[in-house]
C-alpha cells in the first residue's frame, strides 16, 4: 500500500474507532507525539491504549474534511474533525461538549513505506480549553502560533458580507469565538456556516449600528452569551455616491452614521466591558488619506475613522485597550461593483495600483488577525494599509 493510502486508511480507521486498523498503519517502533496534549508515545501498545481511551471519550469522532500535502519524506494533513466529549479523558470528567477542531498531523514515511519513525500530531489548543484540558504554558505558546486568538471572543459588525464577513472567517480560523453582527439575518446565517468550519463558537446578532442603542445592545449581548469581549472589529459601513453639489443633508448624515458614528459608539460600549484590556480594529480606507471625487461624505467619514483610531488609542492605552485600523484599498465587494462595471473608471483606478488588480475581501483578514492578536502587542493608533501598493504611487 502506498504511503498516502496508508494515511487515508489511518484516518478512516479513526472514524470507525478501529484501534487495530489504526495501528496497522504504523511501524513497530513508531514514536507518536501530540504536543498540545503533552503526550509522547513509543510503540504500538502505548499508541493503542491512547486511541482506545480517545475513542471511548469522544464517541462522536468523525473527520469531516482532509487536505493532504505529500512529499517523498512525509505526508502532512490538515483535518477538520467533529467531536463530542462524553467520556473520561485523562482524568477529566465528561463535559458533553460538541465542537469542531482543526488538527495538523505530519506522518513521516519509513523505509518500508509504512508511517514510521515519528508521527507528530498537533491538536489546536482551543479545543482543549473546550473540554477543560489545559496544557502547560509552554505547550500553549508552542501551539498558539496556529491559533493566535484561542480563547478570545470577537464581535464583528458589518459581518453579513464583504470585508466584515471575510474578517470574521479569518478571526475564527485564528481560534477566536466570533459574534457576527449585521442587519441581514439570512446573510449572517450563510456567513455563520462558513465561519463554523473553523471549529470555534459562532453567534449571530441582528442590529442597525447607526442606532446607538443597537451598538450598546450588541456589545451587551456578546458578553451575556460568551462571557467576555476581547476583540471588536468595526466593519459596518457604506457609501452614497454623487456630485458634492447634489449631496443632501440626509445623504451626508446617513454615510457619517454608517461609517463613523457607529464605530465610535460601538467602541465606547466595548471599552466599558474590556476589563482585562482588548483590541479594537476599525476598518478605515485609503480614502481616509486620499480624496474621492463623487464620494466626499465617504472620504470624510474614513478620514474621521483614522483620527478616531488615533484619539481612542491615546485615551485608552492605560486601560490596556489597543485601537488600530486596517486601510483597505480597492477591494472586490458589493460596494465597489458600480466602479467595476465602468470600464473607463476601472482603467484609471488600475493604473494607480502597482499590483494591477482589486483586492479580495479575504486578503484583509490577515491584517485584522495581526492587529487583534498579541503579534501586534506594542502597536496602537496605527493604520495598516492593504491596498496593492496604491499609496506608493
UniProtKB/TrEMBL annotation:
Keywords: Oxidoreductase. Pfam families: adh_short_C2 (PF13561), SnoaL_2 (PF12680). InterPro entries: KR_dom, NAD(P)-bd_dom_sf, NTF2-like_dom_sf, Sc_DH/Rdtase_CS, SDR_fam, SnoaL-like. SMART domains: PKS_KR (SM00822). Residues 152-319 form the Ketoreductase domain. GO terms for molecular function: oxidoreductase activity, acting on the CH-OH group of donors, NAD or NADP as acceptor. Belongs to the short-chain dehydrogenases/reductases (SDR) family. This is Ketoreductase domain-containing protein. It comes from Nonomuraea aridisoli.
